[in-house]
Design a protein that fits this description.
alpha+beta
Length: 175
């Protein structure tokens, strides 16, 4: 009797699950988008590049969508060293101004990256989200007033692919 139960257990375990309504999002597809994002952030359009503090990471949450996150500094900024132990108020203000000027470029690139990723993630269901979260790095000595610590943009894939609804579909949160 126990042998029969074991055989039945193996039989039912070997049965395939019902087919999904869409293909699975392969890790390779997420990795491709991650690499694309890193390349876009590294190739800023001005001489003052974004400083990536680690690679972009993506995850697929079934029933929700693809979520990507990265941490970066808006500019490659100087840091304190034993030879330079402080900055003047004027230097701190200049660094702040450079970062404020870079913020619109970051937001524009994030929008473009959402659209590009929606097109490349072919197996992502149309009603699911594409999300990009960028955490902005700030040194403790910086003036980061008026600068967010994180920007999150998201939209449904189908709306990102439509020229008519693309701009109004992207929701942006700054924290």
């Amino acid at each position: 009797m126990n042998v029969l139960a074991v055989l039945l257990a193996f039989f039912f375990a070997a049965q395939e699950a019902p087919p999904a309504s869409h293909g699975r999002i392969a890790r390779a597809a997420l990795a491709s988008v991650e690499k694309n994002f890193d390349g876009r952030f590294a190739r800023a359009y001005t001489p003052d590049a974004f400083e990536l503090l680690g690679p972009t990471r993506g995850v697929y949450l079934e029933g929700y969508g693809a979520v990507f996150s990265v941490e970066l500094n808006l500019i490659v900024s100087p840091n304190l060293t034993p030879f330079r132990q402080s900055f003047t108020k004027i230097e701190i203000a200049r660094i702040h101004d450079r970062k404020v000027q870079r913020l619109p470029l970051l937001k524009q690139q994030m929008r473009e990256m959402l659209v590009a990723s929606a097109a490349s993630l072919e197996n992502l269901p149309p009603s699911e989200q594409v999300v990009l979260a960028v955490s902005l790095f700030h040194y403790s000595w910086e003036d980061y007033s008026g600068l967010p610590s994180q920007i999150v943009m998201q939209a449904e894939r189908q709306k990102l692919l439509s020229n008519a609804t693309r701009e109004t579909a992207i929701r942006t949160g700054e924290f």
